[in-house]
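Example 3.2
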Amino acid sequence: MESAHVHLQSYAIDQNLKKTSKTKNVDKKQRTLLTLFKRADHHLDKDEYEKAIALYDTILSISSHNISAMGSKALTLNRLEKPLQAIKLFKTILKYEPTNVTTLNNLGYVLGTIDKFQDAKKYLHDTLRIDKNYTEAYIQLGNLAEKQLRSREAIKWYKKALKVSSNDPHALYHLGLVYERNSRYKDAITQYKLALRKGPNKPQVNYRLGIAMCELGNHSTALDYFTKASKLMPNREVYGLRRGLEFRHLQDDKSAILCFNKLLKSNPHSTDALNNKAVIYSDNKKYQEAISMPQFVHKLDPNDTLPLYNIAVTYHDMNELDNAIKYYDKVIKKGTSAEALINKAAILATNGDNNSALSYLNKALSIEPEHEIGLKNKILVLTDLGRMDLAMNMINKLLNKNKKSSDFLYLKARLKLTMGKVSDSIKLLNKAIHYNKQIIEKIKNDELFKIIKNNPQLKKLNIFN
């Protein structure tokens, strides 16, 4: 979930200052304050928060109870991830103005960010007691509920916000986020589209629409939304990355490379862009680039295991298995990568060391018990070790969870054939093909099934024709 800084309400410059600035006889003190506020705004626009705070302090040295300066300073402190200082300042404002709804709302928000949920709710409800139509307070109550994974309550608050505001776009957006988190992607898309009608140039809404479209398999449409988000906010790296990944999904590697290059132009040290670019080079057998890029990334961040893993996979693809194992070991030593353990096990099994392979697969499955490739490989290794009962027990448990899994039906057929039960094996193959015809290619390339390819029953399945 994206945080919603939009729900921190800004403090307007004192209206008296604005009025006096239009008159000829402007008080020197008021002119100075107005100039300082404008300079602070300029620094905020450039994300120069410390400079803005220094100016607010100057204002407060001239006008110690200036609510606009105190409030703006508190907001800026929160941007600098100093919530406790922001909270202290908001509470100071409330001593002077106990019914200041902007401050009550902002205080509720900041308390929520540090998980002080009950205190946050108190201030937000105080806001609504003073102004029952204060939209942002409803939205923030929804955000608090969502942060505690209470989706029904969150939906209730967002809908109240929509009711008092005639479809506030921020409320629509957050309602969409709740639906998305609960896998209600069509409902999420409806809310996001309504939010875009209110404000079409919202990059985060376009981005979330892209994510929801991906989940429904609408990748071309998702790409359009990621592109829009990236154009609206070119400096937001995650938007550009998702755009590049979507090009990859659509098998347009050339456009993906261009996208990652654009990110690298603005940030040459973008590890995500470099890693993704390296994967494309590896897939296209440009191995030198595929190895040199992750090596550069690893120098930038020696604690990041992903570049080491990518180097290992590239060596694995090149069939340089000793180098592959060397890098898989580096990944395994640094962290808990199930994939590195599984891939090392695959090399060990290929080299005939099934006992060591089984040990690595068990470690991988202790990290990710449902890892499908790990489970499949363990069944194959157990079969090769002649531990048929264990392998069959595993397959049956997995098929009880998903009776239509063509992959596990194929593995059971393979195991039955190893046990000499040819007829049972062919029946299972027939089932596997019924659920997924793409499994035929795997059967066709399996040396075990090639042995019985002339079996009359197997011929009826038209696998080897």
